[in-house]
Amino acid sequence: MLFVSLSALTLAAVSALSAQSGNDRPGTAESDAGTANKQSQPTSSASPKSNDADDAAGKEASTGSPASTDRDGGDSGEIPKPLQAMLAEGTSLNPENTVFLDLPKRRLLLQTRVVCEDCLLEMLCCQQGTKEHESILIINGKAATVHAGLLALPLEAGTPVSYSPDFKAPNGPVINIFVNWMDADGKLQRKDVRSWIRHAVFRYYSHKLNGPPPGVELPHMELRYDKFNKEILWYGPMSDEQRRALLALWEDAEYRKAVETFYRDGQSRPLTADFVFAGSYYHTDPESGTKYYAAEGGYLICVANFADALLDVREQSSANEGTQSYEAWKGQVPPRGTPVVMELVPEK
Questions:
Q1: 209 secondary structure, DSSP code
Q2: In the chain, which residue ranges form alpha helices assigned H by DSSP?
């Protein structure tokens, strides 16, 4: 399997990112996407034509099968054959063989691996050596390559989140994301990735209340009272049995409202927001003058809002320490180290 070299596709699209004007955001002119699209059409019988430099790069980078990385991003051998077959439907865009363009099905395929199955999240997927402690998946590849592949579908990036003067959600083309992996029984699974992500439940919930339940020694179960801020607090998910026991403690309407709110908000609820191609931005080193693509810092696919994000959720989602909006849904996410092929499919 030869990858389409930078001079064949990625360079064409990345050039669109580099040739910036005004605010130094990655641009996506239709002509750039069209050029990338035309140059990257896969053929049924032969590898794409290339010049000598391209041939050398392809021979050096390609081993005839998709690359595989271990849970820390290192090589761990071949991925399962059904996943290899899926990747073979596309054309590799990078030497690592982790980003594949499938034009007939109008999708981008990413070869990734599970690195966290139960953590608070800022990312769904990050690059190797960046945000593994707060991301479900890791990829050995560059954000610019993924951006280039999205341009080639063709798509045009939107705009990242902004906070000044007021919050403005990220926008851009909606990207449906599906995950494919082999389960413990050796069966191929395919799910909407949002089924792996839930609203964070292992956190503190608070509600304004003038005083604690009379005659109750606190803490009681996970119930606490903050007398300085005049708030009743609860930590983590609440069972129906706990809800009924807490409601029996006091008839006060505001207290009962707090308990019902804690119970409702503590239930597992999947992510429902759309992912959008926000596009990140470039920043320039003031000393060297070198431009850097912000998404390369680990902000490939985010579930907390960052201006650096290549893909982000189209809603307000906290990235503040301890108040993250989302967490990996333990029991839904396969075990650490599981190879996963992600499909990025533009919404029709």
A1: -
A2: 11-18, 30-39, 52-61, 81-87, 143-151, 240-247, 253-265
Query: What integer pLDDT is reported at residue 164 of this predicted model?
Result: 86
Residue 279 CB contacts under 8 Å (≥ 6 apart), including other chains: 25, 26, 28, 147, 157, 158, 159, 160, 172, 310
Angle (nearest 5°) at CA 317 between 313 and 321: 130
Collapsed DSSP state (helix, strand, coil) of residue 2: coil
Positions in the chain whose pLDDT score sits under 70: 1-77, 319-324
Contact 131, 123 (CB under 8 A): yes
Structure token digits, residue 7? 């001079």
Find where tokens 């981008």 sit. 108
Please give the Cα distance from 113 to 223 (Å, whole number). Answer: 38
Question: In this predicted structure, what is the pLDDT of residue 62?
Answer: 39
List strands edge to edge, sheet with 197-199.
Answer: 120-121, 326-328, 197-199
Q: How does pLDDT run across 252-281, given as a tens digit for each residue?
A: 999 999 999 999 999 999 999 999 999 999
Residue 78 dihedral angles phi and psi, to the nearest 5°: -70, 150
Cβ atoms of 9 and 40 within 8 Å: the answer is yes
- Cα 162 from chain centre: 19
What's the pLDDT at 132?
Answer: 96
Is the whole-model pTM more than 0.70? Answer: yes
End-to-end CA distance of the chain: 30
Find the helix packing angle between 253-265 and 240-247, rounded to 10°.
170
| All residues at 6 or more sequence positions from 335 whose CB lies less than 8 Å from its CB, including other chains | 114, 117
Q: What are the tokens at 331?
A: 């029991």
Distance (Å, whole) CA 261 – CA 256: 9
326-328 and 91-92 strand pairing: unpaired
Measured CA to CA in angstroms, residue 71 lies from 83, 136, 178, 194, 254 at distances of: 17, 11, 20, 21, 47
